[in-house]
Amino acid sequence: MSLLQDLQWRYATKKMNGKKIPQEKLDYILEAARLAPSSSGLQPFKIIVISDEALLEKIKGVAYNQSQITDCSHLLIFAAWDGYSEERISNVFNYMMDERGLPHSTMDDYKQTILSLYGPLGKDWQAHHAAKQSYISFGMAIAAAAEQRIDATPIEGFLPEKLDALLNLRAEGYRSTVILPLGYRDESNDWLVNMKKVRTPKENFIKVMTIEDAVDTGEQPMGLSLDNFNQK
Ligand SMILES: Cc1cc2nc3c(=O)[nH]c(=O)nc-3n(C[C@H](O)[C@H](O)[C@H](O)COP(=O)(O)O)c2cc1C
Question: What phi and psi values does residue 129 have, to the nearest 5 degrees?
Fold first, then answer.
């Protein structure tokens, strides 16, 4: 099977049958999510796994009563940092340097640059930036689930403030961004299962550009170069 066949197979499952997925498939999907790239490698988010039925019922109540939340096997909640701080960034880079056997100071210049670029942009911008990183991982999880023939429904239809309160996420410096029920489709009760997959036609979706299409804005190349950082 190719990735394109896997992506054709998957769809945003509207009705799941409650069957449990094997632990090794769950682990595989979570590992794909963990391996996702992120800006500067910060991975400013985590994934919360929930299969507790009573808790799923509560979550459904803040997610427009979408049935997949209680009919899934496991619910993944992607929760991103609510902002960047010196401590958070240092923790990531120090761990990275330890794993690579390099001194912590290797990343000092780069870390200061990130803090000076992100700091003035404020907490909301930072939370949004962190949330975007979580969506890359979310996409990887969706593709990995499809490869494993596990159904998944990407869900943004929930009230983040209420979910965060229920799971006490804000107290820990996190905000929920998106959630992903994993399970098996209930073919006989899912209206979407046999519908044609519809996407923007390629000619409207892909545009090739050359210098002829560019606007001469008079902009000079930036002075700052990321090549100058002492990253090994
Ligand atoms: C970020 C995001 C949020 C979504 N939120 C919901 C949702 O709350 N409920 C739902 O049933 N589907 C949701 N969807 C599914 C989309 O409607 C679906 O992916 C899209 O229509 C394409 O169809 P397909 O995934 O079946 O190919 C969401 C998808 C994404 C990517």
Answer: -60, -45
Domain residues of the chain, as ranges?
3-228
User: Which atom of ligand 1 is nearest to 157's Cα?
Assistant: 8
Question: Is residue 18 lining ligand 1, measured as CB closer than 6 Å?
Answer: no
Residue nearest to ligand 1 atom 30, measured at CA:
154
Amino acid at 67: S
Confidence of residue 227 (pLDDT cuts 50, 70, 90): confident
- Distance CA(128)–CA(42), nearest Å, equals 14
The 10s digit of each residue's pLDDT in 52-102 is 999 999 999 999 999 999 999 999 999 999 999 999 999 999 999 999 999
Check if the beta carbon of residue 67 is closer than 8 Å to that of residue 16.
yes
Question: In what side-by-side order are the strands of the sheet with 45-50?
Answer: 45-50, 74-81, 174-183, 151-152
What architecture is the 3-228 domain classified under in CATH? 3-Layer(aba) Sandwich (3.40)
Structure-block tokens of residue 118: 């992100």
For residue 139 and ligand 1, the question of a CB distance below 6 A is answered with: no
